[in-house]
Design a protein that fits this description.
The protein is an alpha/beta fold and 319 residues long. It folds into two domains: 176 residues, Rossmann fold (3-Layer(aba) Sandwich); 123 residues, TPP-binding domain (Rossmann fold). Helix content is 26%, strand content 27%. The protein has eight helices and 17 strands. The chain has a seven-stranded parallel beta sheet with strand order 7-11-6-1-4-5-12, sandwiched between helices. Strand 8 and strand 9 form a beta hairpin. Helix 3 packs across helix 4. The longest helix has 16 residues. The radius of gyration is 21 Å and the shape is globular. 44% of the residues are buried. The model has no long low-confidence stretch (mean pLDDT 92).
Length: 319
């Protein structure tokens, strides 16, 4: 089996999902290749090849910024040449924009936002959630051509093996990067904070914090833990926090090792975006709040008493 993974980078720095897709490929066995597209591929290609994979490095000034059109065209040319059986990309913002386009260009079947891959005989099965995470089902490719899979971030967290791979510096055909859209500027969403979708720990708040000024308690706890901050749609719609913090059906999907749900009731729309977290800690004064149905640990009480004490204890332990 030949497997192609797609690396993701920003400012020539690899995202964690680039290594997670290699882990997913390794769980299937076979020959693993990785495609890297960037303005300068030298450093990132070395990091990827150190994982024991063959890296096809496409360096071009147009590729320094994400262009789903250009990326998909380059990847299609590589897929036509190398004929992989499986293509694994990310279910991040960038991956969602590109993977569907790429699968359509290659006339291939696709499974999106997957959390596990297994080999059933010669067929690859992709596990993915549905109905807000209440159901998991498997998808198999029953048509010719590669099977395209987008992987949910943080689904594969084991350490990758070190090895000695190969780097192939590819010539980029200018016709493939002749995109209609141009990037005129960039604004950082995170403002220096931990990226929400890549964070190992997320501290999220809901309407239970009562007022916008109380969100600073969430930020203080997150800073203590080196965590990302999240929010329910209710407080985003109220204008208390920016949309970039929203977790849920109409926000971001997160899959951290530890998720704090503080003052969040647990509406199904929010659970869609976080219920796959490895450990969930809920703090809510309503003992019947739905969030307690999925929480690993629950604290029933006043968050205005619990949170300051918890943050103070964390500072004491971590200093």
């Amino acid at each position: 089996m030949k497997i192609l993974t797609i690396a993701e980078q920003k400012d020539n720095q690899l995202a964690n999902i680039s290594f997670e897709t290699i882990l997913a490929a390794r769980s299937l066995g076979g020959d693993i290749m990785t495609a890297l597209m960037a303005g300068d591929t030298a450093a990132a290609a070395g990091q990827l090849s150190a994982k024991g994979v063959k890296v096809f490095a496409f360096a071009h000034d147009t590729l320094k910024d994400f262009h789903d059109e250009a990326y998909a065209q380059i990847l299609k040319s590589l897929i036509d040449r190398e004929q992989p059986d499986v293509v694994i990309g990310s279910a991040t913002f960038y991956g969602k924009a590109m993977m569907g386009r790429l699968a359509a260009l290659c006339d291939g079947a696709m499974a999106s936002d997957c959390t596990a891959l297994t080999l059933d005989g010669d067929a690859v099965s992709a596990l993915r959630p549905a109905y807000g995470g209440n159901v998991f089902y498997t998808v198999q490719n029953n048509r010719p051509g590669p099977f395209f899979v987008s992987l949910r971030p943080k689904a594969f967290l084991e350490a990758t093996d070190e090895g000695s791979g190969e780097i192939v510096d590819e010539n980029v055909d200018d016709t493939l990067v002749a995109v209609k859209a141009k990037v005129t500027g960039r604004v950082s969403e995170t403002g220096g904070r931990v990226n929400l979708t890549e964070a190992d720990i997320v501290v999220a708040a809901g309407r239970g914090i009562r007022a916008e000024e109380n969100f600073k308690m969430i930020e203080e706890m997150a800073e203590t833990l080196g965590a990302a901050v999240g929010a329910s749609r209710a407080i985003v719609d109220a204008g208390w926090v920016p949309y970039l913090y929203q977790v849920g059906q109409t926000g971001k999907t997160v899959n951290p090792k530890l998720y704090f749900a503080i003052g969040i009731s647990g509406a199904v729309q929010h659970l869609v975006g976080m219920r796959s977290s490895k450990t969930i800690v809920a703090i809510n004064r309503d003992k019947d709040a739905p969030i307690f149905n999925i929480a690993n640990y629950g604290v029933v009480g006043d968050l205005f008493e619990i949170l300051p004490a918890l943050t103070a204890k964390l500072k004491e332990v971590m200093n």
